[in-house]
Amino acid sequence: MDFSRPDPAMFDVPFTTEEFRGMPYRLLGRSGLRVSSVGLGTWKMGLPESGDGARVDERTSYAILDRALELGVTFWDTANRYNAGSGNAERIIGRWLRRHPDERRNVIIATKVYGGMDGRTPNHSGLSRMNILDAVHACLERLQCGHIDLLYFHRFDPTTPVQESLCAVLDLVRQDLVRYFAVSNFTADQLALYAETEARLGVRSRVLAVQNRYDIVRGEAEAHRGVLEYAAREGVSFVAYSPLALGLLTERYLDPGRAGPGDRLVDEGALEHAASPEVLGRVRRLAELAHGWGLRLSQLALAYMLGLPGMGPAIPSASTVAQLEENAAAGRVVLSPEQREAVRQVVGV
User: Fold this and answer.
1) Residues assigned a catalytic role
2) What is the pLDDT of residues 204-221, one digit of tens each?
3) What angle do CA 109, 243, 44 make, to 5 degrees?
4) Counting C-beta atoms within 10 Å of the first and last residue's C-beta, which end of the chain has fewer, N or C?
5) Which domains are present in the chain?
């Protein structure tokens, strides 16, 4: 390159922006961190040939990650325990980062610690200072990067003092090994306990987000009722996992004959329990609305959910590039008040 004649395109950078490659971004909790409205869950990614139970192999995973970046889907969610505690979901991301080192700043990597990993003793799980520190270092090695953008506690630990767990995170933040902090599978009472402890430690709004299960036909998991309301009230972002109801909010379950081996609900023997006649009736009514508005069912479900008070980004997973593209398009859908009311009449939220 001739540096005496710089390319004008190099300087065509906005002073500030709320989107990237057409994908709207939103603030995470009460922080300055912006994440793509539609992210990417990576629990399916791994090394199936190793017996880890992954559903997406390495080659397909790379294609999905490549396309995600192109679409502005840059909030990537993983966990050390995914795929039978193998750590392979993190390894896939780490290998992708090694192939694309210049893209590290363009993606927000979120991972989780708690479950038994990297050893089998009682000290290899939970939220003790020992396990948090050891687990984060192991995550960084698998991710092949110098810091974790967003660290989650994967669940609440009733046996470890909250102050011990939070102080361990603060030390990691001071070392710039962790940038931001959140929790997952927490109740409203547990979130309140963490907030009280943060206040005693002089740390305000340290928990930026709570990642719990949520979709518009089943709502919150019964054990976590009230968390979305808490999030809206306290300025915490609710990050919804399984936002498409394990596939129910996709086209494949509109025709009962299409569901079969390879679909998660079928493979896990949960179809009959999850797809009650009442739920399937709502799914079909939502599909009619979506198709009438030129949308896919999944896109309507995600777009509606993203507009709920307290809701942060959604993190649907994808087994194919086509699924990723369909999900990503939902981030750009803006429903009118009349459309939102029509959906609310079906789902009740």
Assistant:
1) 82
2) 658 999 999 999 999 999
3) 55
4) N
5) 22-245+308-332 (3.20.20.100)
Q: Which residue has the tokens 């379950």?
A: 253
User: Which residue shows structure tokens 């997406």?
Assistant: 56
Whether the pTM exceeds 0.85: the reply is: yes
Question: Exposed (0-12), middle (13-18) or buried (19+): which is 209, by Cβ within 10 Å?
Answer: buried
pLDDT tens per residue across span 224-268 = 999 999 999 999 999 999 999 989 999 888 876 666 556 667 666
Q: The tokens of 48 are what?
A: 């199936």
